[in-house]
Write a structure and sequence with these properties.
This protein has helices spanning 8-13, 57-70, 81-89, 106-118, 131-139, 161-170, 223-235, 241-251, 254-273, 292-298, 315-324, 344-347, 367-378, and strands at 74-78, 97-101, 122-126, 145-149, 174-178, 196-200, 214-218, 278-282, 306-311, 329-330, 340-342, 357-361. It is of the alpha/beta class. The chain folds into 2 domains: 3-251, Type I PLP-dependent aspartate aminotransferase-like (Major domain) (Aspartate Aminotransferase, domain 2); 255-378, Aspartate Aminotransferase, domain 1 (Alpha-Beta Complex), CATH 3.90.1150. The strands form 2 sheets. Strands 1-7-6-5-4-2-3 form a 7-stranded mixed β-sheet, sandwiched between helices. Helix 2 (57-70) packs parallel to helix 8 (241-251), helix 3 (81-89) packs parallel to helix 4 (106-118) and helix 11 (315-324) crosses helix 13 (367-378). The longest helix is centred in the C-terminal third of the chain and has 20 residues, at 254-273. The termini are far apart. Bound molecules: pyridoxal-5'-phosphate.
Length: 380
Amino acid sequence: MDAKDMQPETLLAQAGGAIDLASGGVVPPIQPSTTFARGEDYQPINPANTYARDHNDAVRQAEAVLSQLEGGEAALLFPTGMAAIAALFRTVPNGGRVIVQSGIYWGATKWIRDFCERRQVVMDEVDASDSAALRAACEAGPAQIVWVETPSNPWLRITDIAAAAEAAKQAGALLAVDSTAASPLLSNPLKLGADVVMHSTTKVINGHSDVLGGVLVTRERTPVWEEIAIDRASAGAVMGPFEAWLLLRGMRTLPVRVERMVDNAMKISEFLKDHPRVEAVLYPGVKSHPQHELATKQMPQGYGFLMSFLVKGTREDALRVAGKLKLFHSATSLGGVESLVEHRHTIEPHTGIPESLLRLSIGVEKAEDLIADLGQALGQ
Ligand SMILES: Cc1ncc(COP(=O)(O)O)c(C=O)c1O
């Protein structure tokens, strides 16, 4: 069967190709060479490869899978998610304008703010989960990029991607969506009208908390896309073959991991929402979530594995709960097979994150064990 006809589960199970004909192996080989030989006529022996900064088999294989999963025309892998975000924003000319969702991953906000200040780029921050507010920002004048993150980290707000694409068009901007907390299995922004989708592949796509990476996938090969591709090779922001190989290995189990994590997250959200020591649960799967209906429409296969909740009481009460958890590791990041808890206020005290908020990344452990751990930490 041709890869383009495969369901995502099948494509991913054999990510990187079925059989390595040279060895007979059922997984792709790693080619660590940084340079590639030429023949007597001085032509490359393999025309696809000359130097590893421009060409790398494992990177190409992983990009092909990610591009197909998102329904895009091309993908570019970077050494981290932030490198992917930066590569896109660097295409904005000095004096340009970008519209960026407020209350998103703090590392992205911080870098984009600094970048815009250095380059005299106007940055308008707007709650993009409010479609009317986003439309108003887009109608206010032209821009180069509209940047949204859905579900957002750590507020779990949902942005209507189709409405955002329409709004971005008004401003003559491309719509770029950070879909890290959804994964390509739960949401495909390009199919809803976005121009570029981004993932920190450090998170669920690799899924084992052992490889940094980021990807941009484009709907069309535009001049902006070509600029990003040329700059990646020339400026050397490339992923190495070992990382790309590990990423391919991780992706082979993505569907089963996501299915289990989503199932666990639903059960945990049900438990937390009825718990007397919990003030609120921020998870789009909960019916009281303000964008529950939109999330159901936009993410029909599930609401993801990231959630936040507010502990009743003070900062100290929340920190005590985090400290008592035994199965959830107290660590940043998300999307790994192991469950994590994070007190975001400690990381970003100036952004309005409540002091009592704990963010959970739900892993693939048995739901009952995770619920028992939360129960003992909260006090039954
Ligand atoms: C939603 C989101 N986008 C982007 C990033 C940045 O990715 P990386 O850590 O791979 O640079 C993160 C990291 O936590 C994230 O949570």
